[in-house]
Every structure is written in C-alpha cells, then in structure tokens.
Amino acid sequence: MAGLAAAFGSGAMTNSVAELEDSDCIFIIGSNTTSSHPLVAEKIFKAKKRGAAIIVADPRRTQIASIADIHVRQNLGTDVAFINAMMHAIIKNSWHDTGFISQRTEGFEAFKENINAFTVDKMADVTGICADDIVKIAQLYANGKASSIVYCMGITQHVSGVDNVKSLANLAMLTGNLGRESTGVNPLRGQNNVQGACDMGGLPNVYPGYQPVNSEDVRKKFETAWSFEISKDAVEPDSSEEKSSMGLSADVGLTIPEMLKGLGDGSVKALFVLGENPMVSDPDTNHVRKALQSAELLVVQDIFMTPTAEMAHVVLPGACFAEKDGTFTNTERRVLRVRKAIDPPGEARQDWQIIQDLSSLAGYPMNYESPDEIMNEIAKVTPSYGGISYERLEGDGLQWPCPSLEHPGTGFLHKERFTRGMGLFHVIDYIPPDETVDDEYSFWLTTGRTYVHYHTGTMTRNSPSLNAEMSEGFIEINPSDAEELNLAQGQWVKVASRRGEVIVKIIITDTIGKKVVFMPFHFIESQANLLTNPAFDPTAKIPEFKVCAVRIEKMVKAQH
Amino acid sequence: MIEHVKTIAKQLLESGQITGFLSLKKEHGQIGPHLFQSVDQLDYLCLGDTTGTENRESSTEERYSGTVESKPEIETNRASGKQENQSGAGKSRYPLNKILVRISRNYPSDCFGILVRGCDERGLKRLFALNQLDPDKVVRVGIACPQDLADECECLEPWPDKWVNDTEKTDGSEKEKIDGTEKSDKAPHEPVRQKLPCESVARLESLEARDRFDWWMEHFARCIKCYGCRDICPMCFCKECSLQDDNLVRTGEIPPEYPVFHLARAVHMAERCIDCGLCSEACPAAIPLRTLYKKAGDIMSNESGVRPGYSDLTPSDIGNLPQTGEY
Amino acid sequence: MGECHYLEGNYTAQKRINFLKPLINFVGIEKERLHAKWVSSAQASELVNDITNFIDDLREMGPSPLKSKINPDSIKTDRYKP
C-alpha cells in the first residue's frame, strides 16, 4: 500500500475486479489467485476465454499458472530484478508509452538511467527466468491495449516489499496502463475488510482516509470533530501536566514488529489485540511468544479461543460477521453493508460496542446509538467516504472515492490525473532477500495459504468439512530434491531454520521448483512461522514471510 | 402476476392452511429466499425480478406476461423514481425446495406453501418420490418463467402443471378465479419445448471424442472444489456426501481429481437432477455443469424412458440407479 | 443375469454400466474402455478369455486420454496416501 501511495497518491486497487474480464493481458505476480481470490480468478478465466494473454510469475505452479500462456518461476525475492529487466526490454524496444510518460508522470529520466543497468541477460541469471521469457512477457504486457497487473502477498511480504510494489507501479506508468478501464495495478487484499480497516485509519500513521497524523491541519480537524474540549472536561484532569498532554498526538504510532520489540524491552506495557492471531500469523513464533509473555496486560478480542487469546489476561468475546451490523470495504474499494442475521452468543458483543465502552471508561465518552451513526461521522471526516451513507449502500454498495452525495462512486482511479498529481517514477535497486541459502540451510522456504484454510485457521479449522479437506500441515518438495534426500511421499521430516524447527509431512510434487520448499502457515502444530524470518520492509514493516533459508532432515523414526 | 401470487399467499396464510409461504423477498436491493409467516410481510414478496435495482437488459418477460406495465396495483418501491418492474417472474432463482426440505424436517406436522417454477415443481415431484417431503404438507403456487430465461436454460418445460396467469384480466376479460388451485391450463406463452438433444449437448456431440475430452478437461481444470454445485442443488440431501469421501475423491488439492469429481456427482444425481441449472449459475469457475447433467438426463430417458421430475414415477420405476446416499 | 448372489444386483450393475458408458463417452472417454461381462465362479476360462480380449481391445485403442490430461497437476502423486 505504501508503495502505491508513493507512486500514485492512493494506496488501493486502482481498478475494479469486474474490469479484469476485459483486459487484453493480465500479469499475475505473487498471487495464488484460484486459492485465495477465486472470484477474481473467475474474471481472469473469462478474460482468457476472450483471448487475453495470461502471464503468471510464481515460484509455484499454481492452478492459475497451469492455465497461463506463460508461467515463469522467479527465484525467491528477485521480483525487482525481474520487473526491472522487463522494463529494460520495454525501453530498449520502444514499447513504452511516451505520451503518457510526458503528460502524466515525473521522475522518468532518473528512472530510465537506473534501468539501464538491468539488462535482460544479467537479470536472467539473478531471477532464474530465461531471457527470452522476460522479453516475451514484457512484449505481451506492453503491447496489450489494456493490460492489468494483479499482485498479492507474494510481492509485499519481502524486505523489498515496497520496492516491489513501486516497480509494478513503474511498469504500469511506463506502458500507460493506468487511469483507464481494465488496466491498473491491482493488489488483492486478503481479508474481507482489510481495505476498510486501512481506510479507517487502522494504521499507525494515518487518520481515516489516509490523512497523516503528523499534519497539524489534520490533527486540528480531528480534534474539532471529536470535540476534544468536551472530553477534557469529562476527565477533569487534576494536574496541569495532564492538561497540557491532552489533545491528539502528533506522533506516528508503532507497527507490529515495533510493538513486539517494545514489549520485549519494556517500553510497551500493554497490548490490545483485535481479531488477530500473532502467535500463528507473525514470523518467528518463539520471539512473538516471548514478547507477549512479557506484556503486563494482554487483552485479546476474538470470536474463538486462539493461541494468542490463550495467553491473554483478558479475553473479550467479539461478534462474527453474521452477528453484527456495519460495512466491509472490499479489495476493489467497494463499501458493502453487512447485516446482522443472528444475535451474538453468550456475552459476545459487537466490536464497536466494546470499543465504545472501553473508551467511555477510559475517560472519553462515546455514545453512538448504531453503526449508522458511526458511518455518518466517517462521511463527515473522511473525504473519500464523504458521499457514503447507509441509505446509499442498498444493493451493490459504493466504491470510494465517493466525495459527495451525488457522486456515483469510482470504478477506476487516476482517470485524468493521479491522486498525487503526477505519477512518480521511483528509482528502484534490487535488494536480495534478507536471508539467503548456505551450506547449512540449503533450501529456500516460502510460505503461503491453501484453498481450504483462511489465515491462522481460527475460523476454518473449526469447520468440520474444511478441516476434513485438509487437517494437517505439509511441506511441498520437488521430486528431485526428495530423491536426493531419499524421502518418500508422506514421510515426516524435520525442517529447521536459524530460528526454530518443525516436524511436518512432505508432499512430493513438481508444483514447486528445485531447492525451494513451500509450507502453508495455517497450522499451529506444524508452524511455518517458527521458521520464518522477522526481517521486515523498512517502510511498510511487512515481514519477509516469503523467503528464508531452511534445512531439511529425514526423521530417523516415523512420527505417528 | 405478482399481485395474484400475493393474493393467493394471503388467502393461504389467513385460512390457516399453511404455516408459512416460502418465496423470494426483495429487501435492501437484494433478492433472497424468505418464509413469509404473516400477511403484512407480503409487501416484500418478489418473484425474482432483478430489474429495477440494476440496469440490466430490459426484462423481456413483459412480452409474454403482458402484464407488467399495465398493472396499476404495483406500487412497490417507486421511491427512487425509477421505473420498477418487479411483478414478473425474473431471472433470480433460489433452491427453495432445499430450504423447504430443511424446514419440513424441523416442523414435520406443519404445512407450507411454496413458490414453484417448472424446475422447482419437477424437483418437488422427485423429492416426494424419494420421501424427502410429504406431498400433503406442501401447497404449490406456480409461476411460469419468462421466455428469455427459458431459452437460456434450454428448459424443456419452463412452467409447472398449474400456474398463476392473469392474461385474461389484462385482456379485459373476466377476472380469473384465484383460490390457489384453479389456474390456467394453457401455456403462459408460446410453447418453447426444446428439441432433444438440446443444442448445447448436440454441439458437443458433434465434436470428435478427443476434442470433446479436451473441452471438458479445460473446464474441469478450473474447478476450485468449492462445492457450490452441491450446496445450491435442491436435490442434494444426503447426510454424507460421496464427494467428501477421501476414498472416492482425494482431499487436499485443487483442482480436485477430474473428471472423477464431476462424473461422480453426475452419476450420483442421475435419477435426481431435474435440470434447474442452479449448479451452473452458482459455479464460480463457470463450468458448464448443466450441459453434463442434461446429457445425463438424456441417457436416463433413453435407458429407462423417464426423465427425472417429468412424471410422478417412483424410484423403482426408474430403475435401481444410484439412490440416496449409498452410491 | 438374475442369478446374482445379491438378488437383482447384476441388474443394478448393468443399469449403471449402461448409464456410465454414454456418459464417459460424452466427456470424450471412449465407451469401449468400460466393459462388463457376467461370469460365474465356474467359468474361469471364459473370464480369462474375456479379460484377454478386453486387454487386446484396449491396446488397439492406445493410451487413455486421461493419461495426458491438460493439467499435469491433477495427476500428481497421491498426497495423503504414502
């Protein structure tokens, strides 16, 4: 998101899902689309039927890769090298869109100079993709009338995550594939409402609508909107020191890795976790456990007793999607109504009610009657949601930006101009992954999801039919590597990294390339994140889930 | 048409003949199934017409029902100022039978009314024969499908035995008697019986075997094993599903083993599939399942002389083809 | 026919075979690849003959299209059954 915001001024999917159907070329990188976003995959299939070229770059031959016109396996963490080489080929062959570059973008010259060094042949060695394929992909993408880029966590979960995204933004600007239907740079958001959570300021550095916390104007605006004067009276501060500290903080908050670090060194005392399960989802589980254990107060709000909730001092029961009213904002910026179908069980309550009560108890009274009322406030303080009200969300919802009540919503962004004005070319250098293989840890491990389970399995592993479909973790290994290690199908192995080790069953398959292994991270009992590397992107602070080095050992005795 | 359905539903509810009327409801711009248990809810009743909320292609059923525009009593949701056409049988369908089976299992002594199209009624007949529903506890209120939907479906009989018809009324002739039983007995529009085999089936059969194989495998390869085809199917009621049996279809991979996954289902449904096509509509991978099942119906028809749902025969008349949950 | 240990079992089987043949044919698998023959436990040589003939027929037909399906993923090794 940070990458797209820097290049275009807006961190969201530029186009809509349905538009993919009319693309001439769809470049899918780092997305196991049929597993994780099957309804997006449907549009891609339809585009293929219409004759669109489908290009997939993924270390695994996923289902979507198997129908692609070209599927290439890049070495883990070499996306920048690959994309830069594509752009090198595009510029060299004059496939770029000079009109678009001169009218809509800035920073091209510096960018071009940098790209000079990324010759296709040199990068073919780095990426493991043959030079011909790089050129062919570049040609297909650049020469499509409307070419779309689709990416997902395979791009972002790297130490170079933001660079990867900026490179894709460069690629789209270079070829003029922006601001039109069926083009764009389209990150597929994982959670149903992760876009909404970010839109609402669920990030350490922004208020709702990506308004920066360290802007004086923005801070004033929110202090007024949230009637800060009233709250001062309400708490009746008895010392002048407290009085002066009232008002909204101008400091950027902490990211998850920083919070965990803070817990470890004592600078963070308490942690409030809402609907997250860092014990399974965060890298280097041993480190996470230590951090959480050192919290003076750990509060977890969830719908199930997750491994993280089990460690909590206080567990607050939340409501699931069917038990609450509100909105979700999906990956294509579409705000959709959610309606309560059943009452939450037991003492479970809707999230906004819990937060409201906590806030009131802490001295800032909130008195919302309904989510409807909250949406009205959202519309008031969030320009891109300005025209959104529950009344207008009947039917198919609205796509932001929707600044006024008359505005029909926006299918694709950056039509006449970019949100930031001109599109900005970034100079991006290739940074190798934080950890690379060596003699001791000779396999590349990449992690991901399966079609059966969702994230940490909090919900899906509690579903009998889904759990029956896949009840245990596994590690995928290429047949030639299995042979070398003398491993048979279904055998147990020990997988170790510098941070931990797990015992897991192997699946021998050529879905995965040589010297690379894949593990899903849904399974606490064979926890991929015991192994993963917590090194993170310096800007977005996303950990490098997708690359680390591991060792694989045959188990002497079978584990049963 | 819709006002007649509402009138019938009202009479059935008021007379106490039924506990609830299972139909479609339009609310918040969305259509979904709903069990109407009181008369005052009936304002929201809908026959599946999606026009009015979305600017889809204009509803062609007007040509056939001839009633939509001219009925003065349709005043539903004109607030938006848009021309609302919510009176006809639209394209939005739901497996109401499946919901009815579930409700009936919980309330076996109650009688329910249900909105049926041609396919729904075929389904009901099979469900009666397979002892999933008690015919004495079900009151059908029939509607006929619009021609364009019937064409899309290549439906052999896009209307139930009896359906609500009000063409006489709009023709200015005598008002039809509506009591839930007496309905028109002539086709609601020009008969649209398709020639057999259906075009979609015939087109495939004209291909070489190898091409046909490739065609199907390309479709099957997109399967994401979501079980949408099974979950939407009004005729799927087994407690244990063969498709979830690890011995028949391996777990843990997509696409699922094909063509086994899809053929196993086709075989299993052989004497049940009533060609409603909801599976094809639901499939997120756009696999043309209906064409496969149409062929299965053709084979049934050739082998046993009976196409499931098209007459009131019992399972033994059809032959001992795969029956409930044991295949 | 009719002398099945399971009473009308072989009739049932026959009906299923009759259904399956045109169905697999419809998805492009030659219906000749499915073959049923009723033999009793006393007709060993007939069974042997029939199987031999069936194998010969299959040889003549060549490999099944299922062997070279479009997507090699689907014929990957058995995941959970070592």
Pick out its properties.
heterotrimer, B: 327 residues, alpha/beta, globular, C: 82 residues, mainly alpha, 2 helices
Protein architecture, described:
The complex is a heterotrimer of chains A (560), B (327) and C (82). Chain A has 3 domains: 2-188, Dimethylsulfoxide Reductase, domain 2; 194-399, Rossmann fold (3-Layer(aba) Sandwich), CATH 3.40.50; 443-554, Barwin-like endoglucanases. Helices cover 33% and strands 17% of the residues of chain A. Chain A is built from 23 helices and 23 strands. In chain A, the strands form 7 sheets. A 6-stranded mixed barrel of chain A has the order 16-20-17-19-18-23. Chain A has a 5-stranded parallel β-sheet with strand order 3-2-1-5-6. In chain A, strands 9-10-11 form a 3-stranded parallel β-sheet. In chain A, helix 4 (63-66) links the parallel strand 2 (53-57) and strand 3 (70-72). The model of chain A is unreliable at 230-237 and 239-245 (pLDDT under 50). By secondary structure, chain B is of the alpha/beta class. Chain B folds into 2 domains: 2-170, no CATH class; 199-318, no CATH class. Chain B contains 13 helices and 5 strands. In chain B, strands 1, 2, 3, 4 and 5 form a 5-stranded mixed β-sheet that branches. The relative contact order of chain B is 0.12. The model of chain B is unreliable at 52-86, 167-187 and 312-327 (pLDDT under 50). With 82 residues, chain C is an all-alpha fold. Chain C has a domain at 9-62. Chain C contains 2 helices and no strands. Chain C has helices at 9-26, 44-61. The longest helix of chain C has 18 residues, at 9-26. Classes of the chains: A alpha/beta (560), B alpha/beta (327), C mainly alpha (82). The interface between A and C is medium-sized, with 14 and 10 residues.
